[in-house]
Amino acid sequence: MNARHFGKMALWIAALAGGASCLPADTRPAPGSILLTVVSADEPTTMTADGWSITIDRLLVGMGNAWFGHPDVRATGRDCIHYSDTPYLRLLDARRPTEQKLVIMYGLGPCQFSFNVTWPDTETLLGEGVSEIDKALMAGPEFVTRGGRPGGIAIDFAATATRGDATKRIHWMFRQPMSFACPPPTNGSPPLELRSGESWTFPIRARAVTLFADDPDPALASLRFDAIAAADGASGPVDDEVTLDELELMTLVDARRFGLYPTVVRSPDFNTPSTLGGYVHLLLLPRLVQLREDITCESLFGTAFSPR
Amino acid sequence: MDRVVLLKPLGLVLGLLLGSLQRRAKNIMIGGRSARRAAASAALALASMVGNAAAEPPPPPPESAPTPGAEASDLTPPSLAAPAEVPYPEGAHGDAIVVLMLTVGRDGAVAEVRAIEGDEPFASSATAAAGAWKFEPAQRRGQAVAARIRFEVQFHEPPRDATSEAPETNAPSGSSTAPPGNAANTGPDAAARAAPRPTEITIVGERSPPGVSTFTRAEVRQLPGAFGDPFRAIEALPGVTPIVSGVPFFYLRGAPPGNIGYFLDGVRVPYLYHVGLGPSVIHPGMVERVDLYPGGYPAQFGRFAGGIVAAEATAPRADLHGEGNIRLFDLGAMAETGFAGGKGTALVAGRYSYTAAMLSLLAPEVALDYRDFEARVSYDLSPDDRVTMFTFGSYDLIGDKKSGNLEVLFGSEFYRLDTRYDRRLGPSSKLRAAVTLGYDRTKIPDEPRTARNEQVQARVEVTHSVSSHAELRGGADALVEAYRTDLRPYSDPDDPGTREFNALFTARDDVTLGAWTDAVLKYPGVTVTPGIRADLYRSGKASAVGIDPRIAARIEVTDRIRFLHTFGVAHQPPSFIIPVPGLAIGSLQGGLQTSLQSSAGVEIDLPDQTTATFSVFDNVFLNMSDTIGVTETQGEDDGLLSSKRSLGSAVGAEVYIRRKLTRRLGGFLSYTLSRSMRSVGQERFPSAFDRTHVLNAALSFDLGRNWRAGTRFVLYTGIPSQIGKSIGPPPPRGASPPRDPAFYRLDLRLEKRWVYSQRTYLSFIAEMMNATLHKEVLFGESIGPVSIPSVGVEVGF
Q1: C-alpha B376: how far from chain center
Q2: ipTM associated with this complex
Q3: Cβ B494–A101 below 8 Å, yes or no?
Q4: Which of A103, A123, A150 sits opposite B492 (nearest CB)?
Q5: B237: which of A144, A207, B203, B497 lies 20 to 30 Å off by Cα?
Q6: What predicted TM-score, i.e. pTM, was given to this entire model?
Q7: Which one, of B559, B684, B556, B705, lies nearest residue B629 by Cα?
Q8: Which of B387, B448, B491 lies at the smallest CB-CB distance from A26?
């Protein structure tokens, strides 16, 4: 060997260094996608069965944090391959009749997806017509300094009901976070089959007047407002402003004077409400968010599951 | 999900540990040669001096190679210029061993001799004889230097019939350093032969910089729980605060992992550990030593505000040598030889994990693979010129195989090609010029896209000895880096995490220019090293300048007591939570991080070659991007993917008492008492990984018959438990929060070595980290037990 060998070896070393790059490619095929949108299912004005005209003045909903679940592999023999979750929220004006994007997710195979209704945080994106002030109000007082972790307001709902000369206003701020699993993994519903390159769109319909139903079962329910109007003054003077606190003071037994208002229906968290406030909170609020008829979703209270 | 990338390295580390996916069997190459074959001479007393074989297990290198324990590479140990003889003491009986500590001056004369082991009258006989020995002086990079070396002298009682037996020499055969005429001392007056293979060399007057802690590989081999890996051993040094037991990322005097720079021969290494938790990405056989600079480091190191881990590769050797090992989950090998009459050397090394094949049987859905390689070729153009080409690289992959498809959970690779030219400029100056090409790539978890970095760096370093009292050093470099990240094809483009990721890790071209200089000023009893470096950072369209003054002082109070002081300012661009190839926060968002690091200590030479160091330190971190140190919630990565800034401080005291682990009985005690605080807004609280007490104690002992055992005890305080869960508001953080329980573990190591020739050996090594299977509590949850067993075989030649 001599000095010339140095040059040869140097070339080998350079080739070794230059040709060593070898991380394998991701061999997963192109996924399918699910686009979740939000659209209002309310009419500009809704007439109730007891003659009240309802106008929705405000419906801000914090939604998002969507993720793929894994249906029972034993049932399908395959697992859901998720390419990306969407760990972010939007604060949307759910009165808008046009579809607003919530998230787009990519996956493959038999999949189930979930999303949250919860209060906004610092990174929450604002929908059309929603302001930073709205976000700050709903995020709560800790929002500024603590990263939006504490409980804020998940749904900010305001409406005006009129009948003749009577006018009642409501402004209900629901702090209860909820999660929705579609289709639910527990009731034997088959998962969605996401195929490569296939795109699904699921409009999430926000129907605020659901909060005036006198039965959680849509097939039995009628929209009524008399019971709610009767709660005005339950705490404090009759001021034509019906608060959630006032609903809490009206029992379902009393409410049955105005409609069905069943007293034996259990909520998703297995509590049986006994007041009109609990009834609205536990039984009607989860039905404010609906998917299309062929997709069943299971709601879960008290959680704001994150895909992370 | 982009954010996952932040937690993946650590999360995977933990996940792998907990899931037993990463049952890395680590093993170490441990020396142990039969350097003490019984000497016998037919008619004469024959004492043999050998290179402290029992205390220094690895086979000794030839003269031209640096010796483990040397404080610098390119070091040629002293060699005997004439046969060394030691008469067998009159009136004595039996065999004996005497260990001498010799100071060999620049002129080759023995300036000082001291017996540190051995009984009388043998010790006096050896001491008296050694004073007359003549050496070729030690050389460091071509210059004669005084050196303190350790010799072992073996006395063997002469048999009555002096001519009936052939002499058995203890000297290693075939050594180029064996002095002429020393092969067999059979004359009636011959008493000893010297095999000049000192295994521990201290260059007199060239002590390590103040504040640095060093492990040689020879020591690391003996450290239980380090698995022979020099880079893993540094976690046992004072100032180091572990994050989780077994995970080789740590805080250093309050500085987070992302603020610690790793270098190999001056080349920056993007990360050190395969799949995030080791083994290291550099073959241990290539690492001569590892220095840990916890602060106030020399001016040549910059661009990191926390600390420096600087490894030095072994110097090129022209003789054929190598080592190999096979362990439970990987195998490695290294070999080097010379060519062109010794002017050139060529080295190859590598490691390969066959876990992929094994896991395919045990867990078909898991893909785990790692490997690394090193290659080096050097050639001496003249006695004063050397050109070297050195390349190394690493590859890691963790994947999830579903339905025949591979999803890359964590994949990373990097490659370096360093071409350097070393020239000696006369007797007192030297120069190094180098160009390094680099390529880094990381697969971003959950996504089929990658982040890449292509880089080229040119650097030059000059050292000039002005006089015996002053040495000037300086250097400059230019680094150009191109960062590229693929667009995320299957993700919601509105995801703030994606946007945040793209904003942080922008595609851009970075340019960094740096220059540094310092002077080593040596006065009687005092050595002061003032220095300064300046760096100009250009990232995207942003620019910043860092000016870093440094000073270190060593004050010799007595021969055995020294005061050590360091102070330094360091700047660093915003850093990721841990080093990940190809991922660096771009555009200098938030500005440079700044640290002010100071320490003071005293170093005391205790009896029996034991040294104790007591230090206090006070570090201040300004505008630091320690995202995991200020995290509010457990299990959430909110805010981690950001350049959130904080003010940090760390104060503490350190104790380091050590006796080289390569001695028959060696060990160390390393203790750190510290408090690392962070301030964000109006909050002031302990760092998320602040640990008040960290204790490491190790013991290594020679059991005889080439058996060696070691144990190590690790104890540290739990972290603050004020970090909240993901649901609900985190409570306000106080300055003295409750803590998770303390953690301790016990590591064990046992080695048996069989020596077949002077340089050929086979070792069986069993090692267990956390042999007591103790569980650690982190964020209020019990982890583990994280225990790593290792069984393996090592060969060397």
Answers
A1: 19
A2: 0.81
A3: yes
A4: A103
A5: B203
A6: 0.72
A7: B684
A8: B448
